[in-house]
Amino acid sequence: RSVPVIAIDGPSASGKGTVAARVAAALGFGYLDSGALYRLTALAAQRAGVDWDDEAGVAAVAAGLEVVFGEGSIRLAGEEVEGAIRTEEISQGASKVAALPAVRAALLFRQRVFRCGAGLVGDGRDIGSVVFPDSRLKVFLTASAEVRAERRYKQLIGKGFPANMQAILLDLRERDRRDSERSVAPLQQNEDAVLLDTSGLTIDQAVDQVLDWYGSAS
Ligand code: C5P
């Protein structure tokens, strides 16, 4: 039997990263934060002076990324960038470069190598549809835009950053629109994915639901 994969796809700030990492820890599986690869590509392109809409240029940057993932740490060419890739500017840049087919193709093999060991939990937009279509469980994890904006707001305030609820909501909607309307691997719930709306759930409840589903799927 091949290495089992749990795919957790959904919109930004839905909490899928937190849930995916917790499910992976509970099962002793690896964890793939695919959004980080798009964020790293946007950051590396910016630093190299490559425009985010230069498809061939950004694809070359994606193919050449020198990245090392650790626990709560991401190194790009030796430099810690876990904070630098989470800014609002890089979030928008990531969603721009993610709309370019050559960039998605360049990042595909980098995602597939994460499938090793006891199992893998991957989170993103197209893990269940494109990266690992044979995932044993596919979850579409979402929450209302208002709930997602509120979570992002509390997270920023909690870290001591200034935050504006209205601006966050607008940014989220803009990124949702770009992610859903693009022609390659658009954000959408596929028919073989189960819907998990976490608007009224705690993280623990969401994690337990995924573990339950996985238990019945394997
Ligand atoms: O999940 P996260 O917000 O970190 O992803 C950043 C951006 O990367 C998203 O807005 C989306 O455009 C893109 N992305 C993608 N496919 C994935 C993961 C992320 O297109 N599998």
TrEMBL record:
Using the record's annotation, list all stretches that form the Cytidylate kinase domain.
6-212
According to the lineage, what is the superkingdom?
Bacteria
- Cellular localisation: Cytoplasm
Residues bound to ATP: 10-18
Q: What does this protein do?
A: Catalyzes the transfer of the enolpyruvyl moiety of phosphoenolpyruvate (PEP) to the 5-hydroxyl of shikimate-3-phosphate (S3P) to produce enolpyruvyl shikimate-3-phosphate and inorganic phosphate.
Kindly state the subunit structure of this protein. Monomer.
Q: According to its UniProt record, which protein family does this protein belong to?
A: Belongs to the EPSP synthase family. Belongs to the cytidylate kinase family. Type 1 subfamily.
* Name of the protein this chain belongs to: Multifunctional fusion protein
Full-protein positions shown: 427 to 644 of 644
